[in-house]
UniProtKB/TrEMBL annotation:
Family named by the database record: Belongs to the acetyltransferase ATAT1 family.
PROSITE patterns: GNAT_ATAT (PS51730)
Protein name: Alpha-tubulin N-acetyltransferase
Residues annotated as binding acetyl-CoA: 123-136, 159-168
Gene Ontology CC: one annotated term: microtubule
Domain N-acetyltransferase: 2-189
Length: 474
């Protein structure tokens, strides 16, 4: 029980009072001074109960505070007290409700805007008094005062206890999946379409609910996939009735259900943080590859395959993009070389490179990494030089063979690609202008992308060594 330093009895002329944004009990009568006093005490009560409610639900901060209530236009808090308890009486429970404008999915998966929709926002009964019917008492008082019915209330991230409470006292079981944190129960929309699937009406049609899955032909279902409704009992009932039907039909249904279960990539647990909602297609993509381990069941390998497919598609797209870039560069180079009598697409590297120290394998641009070593060998040859004629991708099947790109960054007399040190390293030797001597190896190599070569500083020809990593894409 929650006791206070002041006597709560004047604030609670009856066990349950209602408090709105003026922070005064609805029963309050008094002058200005009494009004201020009551407001102050009521704020303390609300803050304390809100805090306990948050702790009880494991929330970081309270959903309910006096300040929030003061700022709200359409929220009401119901407080339950035991004026007999202790010396000053004790407050036992809190129920905050309000109306909200919500975009919600109906039972067909269509989006609907619900204005001033009744919502249960916070509910708490002190631990020492739970499961004694006090919550029901508080809730019933609220329903009478607000003229609401439970099935028409959306519930903001209900806890397991509240779900149990609503199931027990109001028979609310079957939820309508939502993309937000609110939980709705079938019958919420109350129109004819919604009633088709209501547990109070006839059995749900198989197209709409199968094995607790919410399945429609709507765009939402197509986008999000089938969604878990959390009702095992309906399945048992349905299948019980069909016990006398043919075994084959039953097996077909089971196969269909197994296939549908594979569609589920996210089954939210019911709870304050896990209100049932449609599956997220982006999450499905992201987790497709790894979902199999955590989910169990039969959908794991299918999801993993899908993840591989997506990875393949991504790789293909990347390859296509690279080819397009490469083709474009080759095309431009061909255009540039058109006036030449010999349409040699690639000039001999020796003609343009003036190596300061001619290493045996340094005269061609670093060959790109290819998938097949044999293919690479057939093109580059033992001396790792390009053949006299240029092979196209159609000849080689090599998607990443980028002579054209090599041309685009073709070494000039001021550059050299030195392949001796490491396959994935290159050394750029930059010719310094004459007379511009440097005293320290790092003096003017301040470019963050470059690192000074381990050989350090100037070569004997006056080149300054820079190392850089190849871009793997090329
Ligand atoms: C939108 C929101 O506010 S979500 C947050 C809801 N609040 C909380 O989870 C805070 C902790 N829980 C509570 O404060 C209370 O349990 C309430 C408010 C949910 C219900 O108040 P109570 O006074 O216990 O309800 P009441 O006695 O009328 O009904 C009892 C039924 O509630 C459910 N319930 C209550 N306590 C529990 C519990 N500890 N575990 C599981 N179910 C519970 C059960 O269905 C229970 O019936 P049962 O005892 O036959 O199993």
């Amino acid at each position: 029980m929650v006791e206070f330093r002041f006597d709560i009895k004047p604030l609670f002329p009856q066990p349950i009072i209602k408090v709105a944004s003026n922070l005064l009990p609805h029963t309050f009568r008094g002058d200005r001074r009494q009004c201020l006093d009551a407001t102050s005490k009521m704020s303390e009560i609300i803050d304390r109960l809100g805090q306990l409610s948050a702790i009880s639900q494991g929330l970081n901060k309270p959903v309910t505070t006096a300040q929030r209530l003061r700022m709200s236009e359409n929220q009401t808090i119901y407080l339950l007290a035991d004026t007999e308890a202790g010396h000053n009486g004790a407050v036992i429970g809190l129920l905050k409700v309000g109306t909200k404008d919500l975009y919600l999915f109906d039972e067909k998966g269509q989006t609907r805007k619900m204005e001033q929709s009744p919502s249960i926002l916070d509910f708490y009964v002190h631990e020492s008094r739970q499961r004694a019917g006090l919550g029901k008492r508080l809730f019933e008082t609220m329903l009478n005062e607000e003229h609401w019915t439970p099935v028409k209330c959306s519930v903001d991230r209900p806890s397991e206890k509240l779900l149990g409470f609503l199931r027990k006292h109001y028979g609310l079981v079957r939820t309508i999946p939502q993309a937000n944190n609110f939980v709705l129960y079938e019958g919420f929309f109350g129109d004819e379409a919604s009633q088709n699937g209501s547990r109070n009406g006839h059995a749900a049609s198989p197209e709409r609910t199968k094995n607790g899955l919410h399945i429609t032909d709507s765009p939402n279902t197509q986008l999000f996939g089938a969604t878990y409704l959390g009702d095992e009992t309906s399945k048992q009932k349905r299948f019980g009735r069909r016990g006398s039907e043919s075994q084959q039909h039953h097996q077909q249904q089971q196969q269909q259900q197994a296939a549908l279960l594979q569609q589920i990539t996210q089954i939210s647990p019911n709870g304050r943080y896990g209100a049932p909602r449609p599956t997220c297609s982006m999450a499905e993509i992201i987790h497709a590859g790894s979902a199999s381990s955590g989910k169990g069941g039969g959908g794991g390998s299918a999801e993993s395959n899908r993840g591989n497919e997506i990875a393949d598609i991504a790789e293909q797209l990347q390859m296509q993009h690279l080819q397009a870039v490469e083709n474009h560069i080759e095309y431009e180079l061909e255009q540039e070389q058109e006036p030449e009598p010999e349409p040699e697409p690639e000039p001999e590297p020796e003609e343009v490179i003036t190596p300061p120290t001619p290493p045996p394998k340094s005269k061609t641009p670093t060959p790109p990494k290819v998938r097949s070593p044999e293919a690479a060998e057939s093109i580059i040859g033992d001396n790792r030089r390009a053949p006299a004629f240029q092979l196209s991708k159609q000849h080689t099947g090599m998607k990443n063979r980028s002579f054209g790109v090599g041309m685009a960054v073709m070494p000039t007399g001021k550059m050299e690609f030195n392949q001796e040190e490491r396959e994935d390293f290159g050394v750029v030797k930059i010719n310094r202008p004459l007379g511009n001597e440097i005293t320290s190896p790092v003096q003017d190599n301040t470019d963050a992308m470059s690192t000074v070569s381990s050989t350090g500083g100037l070569t004997d020809q006056g080149y300054n060594d820079l190392k850089f990593y190849h871009n793997k894409l090329w």
